[in-house]
Design a protein that fits this description.
19 helices, globular
Length: about 450
């Protein structure tokens, strides 16, 4: 915030004014500096990934061959699997009697899941004739743009590439864009620091105790699960707001990723509102190719189950993530059968059932192991001591904001251009900085994916 961002903004502004044809290259260079800061060893991996996939696209343009694109997509997924799932695969093999494989201890490159899926989207659309040719520098921007390279949102090429030819600081609404970008960045950071991180203090010790085999009370279990339900929302949506705000500062509009998901009245509605860019990716690049809703009910149910199970595996190399995805696939299948039977579902009941299902399945997402998940479930359903006081204030506040309030994007864009609004956001930003300096800071949850 105090070194990279001001320097990057100043350099981008200068280039946009003096040499606008260098703008995209400058953004690519800044993105590699940003990415390499986390761990310089992975910057060559990102560069090689961009270069090789671009060469494949160039070759395909000259000599279309579907097998070439399929091979490239397979290679991208193989690299992702080696870094993210090799140890998980070794654990599965070691379950066989008499087998003992050593597990690779490789570091997981930040953002590899996200930039791999960006390659898959572009190459798939290129093969289908939907995507145009791009030069190396614009393609590198699409893959590595620093606000979204680490944890999304997942951006389709058609949503951003047309913006590269603009002169963002020459637009009549340039000042407003910058102002709203700063406001959105501040709102996202405040969501993380003021809501997400305090909830972590209610959540982490209890899940850690369950993982260590310790007893968990009924009150503790519900506190941890409800706390995580809103922690992950404010943590991830806060990151997304920051990414969208930063992108606006550089003249790029990224797609929204959340639309008040805990207001959903069905599980299908939930996935239209939660991590929206991933949901669209899973729908368009997995569910539809698997048959979607075009080949009968049985195929549709199988496609839903496979899509959500693989979506769960994408989130983490563990059987609990697979079970989480499988549960959502089954839930969506039941909801589909309910709709096919034309059975009634009042909105209030639909909301209550959806929230209960989402809350219960978050246990699998967070627990890490089935043993820990079972301890949490057992306590939630009364097979444990009742426990002491429920720390409800922070959870109640988070629940109210998450279900009743608008998204940060909607709120920021409704704000009138008043000086008092600017002062209020400046004050919030300063208070956030003091909070960051005083308290323990938690890594964004989705950095691990």
């Amino acid at each position: 915030m105090f070194v990279f961002l001001p320097v990057a903004l100043a350099l981008h502004w200068l280039v946009e004014r003096v040499r606008p044809d260098w703008r995209v290259g400058t953004l690519v260079a800044l993105s590699f500096v940003f990415y390499g800061y986390w761990d310089w060893r992975f910057a060559p991996l990102l560069a090689a990934s961009i270069g090789l996939n671009w060469l494949v696209a160039e070759r395909f343009q000259r000599q279309p061959a579907g097998r070439l694109i399929a091979l490239a997509i397979g290679t991208n997924l193989l690299v992702l699997a080696l870094f993210k799932y090799a140890a998980f695969a070794a654990d599965l093999v070691n379950l066989l009697p008499g087998v003992e494989l050593s597990k690779p201890n490789w570091a997981l490159p930040l953002g590899i899941s996200f930039f791999t899926f960006h390659h898959v989207m572009y190459l798939t659309d290129l093969k289908a004739g939907r995507a145009p040719r791009y030069g190396l520098v614009p393609y590198a921007f699409y893959i590595a743009f620093f606000p979204q390279v680490l944890a999304g949102p997942l951006v389709r090429w058609s949503e951003v590439m047309h913006q590269l030819d603009e002169r963002p600081y020459q637009r009549p609404d340039a000042a407003e864009r910058v102002a709203r970008g700063l406001m959105l960045f501040t709102a996202g950071l405040a969501k993380k620091v003021f809501v997400g991180d305090p909830l972590a203090e209610y959540v982490n010790p209890i899940f850690a105790a369950a993982a260590a085999g310790k007893a968990v009370t009924v009150v503790e279990a519900w506190q941890a699960v409800l706390g995580f339900t809103f922690q992950i929302y404010f943590d991830f949506s806060g990151y997304t707001d920051m990414a969208l705000g930063l992108a606006l500062l550089f003249g790029i509009v990224l797609p929204q990723n959340f639309d008040v998901p805990y207001r959903a009245t069905s599980l299908q509605d939930f996935w239209r509102r939660w991590h929206m860019t991933l949901s669209r990716f899973l729908r368009d690049y997995l569910y539809v190719p698997l048959g979607g809703n075009r080949n009968g009910l049985f195929v549709q149910l199988g496609a839903l189950l496979a899509t959500m199970t693989l979506g769960g595996l994408w989130h983490g190399a563990g059987l609990t993530f697979v079970a989480w995805g499988l549960a959502h696939g089954l839930g969506l299948g039941v909801a589909l059968l309910w709709r096919r039977a034309k059975l009634p579902m009042p909105s209030v009941l639909g909301w209550a059932l959806t929230m209960l299902f989402v809350i219960l399945t978050w246990v699998l997402f967070r627990a890490g192991t089935f043993d820990a998940a079972l301890r949490i479930y057992a306590a939630m359903f009364g097979w444990a001591d009742l426990g002491a006081t429920f720390k409800w204030r922070s959870i109640a506040l988070a629940a109210a904001v998450a279900t009743l309030g608008p998204t940060a994007w909607a709120l920021v864009h409704r704000m009138p251009p008043w000086r008092s609004v600017a002062i209020a956001f400046a004050v919030v930003f300063v208070v956030v900085l003091f909070k960051i300096g005083d308290d323990a800071n938690y890594e964004f949850i989705y950095f691990q994916f």
